[in-house]
Amino acid sequence: MKGLLLTNYYLVYRSIFAYVGLALLIAGVLLFFAGPMISGVAAMLIILLMTLPSLEVIKIESKSGYDKYVLTLPVSRSNIVRSHYIFYLSVVIIGAFLSYIVIYTYDLIFETQINGIINIISSGIFVVLLAGALIYPFLYIFGADKSDAFVLGGGFVGLFVYYGIKFLVEDLIDKLPLSIDSSLLVPILFIVLGITVFTLSYLIAVIIYRKKEF
């Protein structure tokens, strides 16, 4: 597993650093010119851009023929799929920490007092986890040639589902006499839901990959 994860990293590590710089640049420009009102977009954009290189792994493996070569190694197909999912999740976590640092630093420097930083980060985590949960099974079924369309579609679906669930959850919280602070409950709910969907996607992807013929 360690070898598979390292291979995934070395396949796209240049892209990861490039996207880190791009994410910081775009987020900085947005925050500087638009202010705290755009902080949610900036945070989500950082996490989203950070995940793009990890989705390129399957495309690079396909073009180089590594996806066929790795099957000759003493690793199971489930481990191959797990390495893709763990690598994606790792990049999501790094992106979340990076977006938190950016928003928090901006808040300190300009004294904007941005509210709900955790809520902003959790929404970004949920969207990209849901997008990844949708993208990977389709990549295993249809191949890496259509990866750009799947990435774009997964992102839009993730945003649509997020805002739909957010509306329902906030409406439910307003109606129920809960003693728990909703500012903490909602972020936890979205993170747990995102991880649950991502885990279910992994189980489905393993079944698909085991039956896949190269």
From TrEMBL:
**One Pfam family name from the record?**
ABC2_membrane_5
Q: Which domain of life is it from?
A: Bacteria
UniProt KW Mitochondrion keyword: no
Q: Where are the transmembrane segments?
A: 12-34, 40-58, 85-106, 118-142, 149-165, 185-209
* Keywords annotated in UniProt: Membrane, Transmembrane, Transmembrane helix
Query: PANTHER family annotated for this entry?
Result: MEMBRANE PROTEIN, MEMBRANE PROTEIN-RELATED
Q: What is this protein called?
A: ABC-2 transporter permease
Origin species:
Aeribacillus pallidus
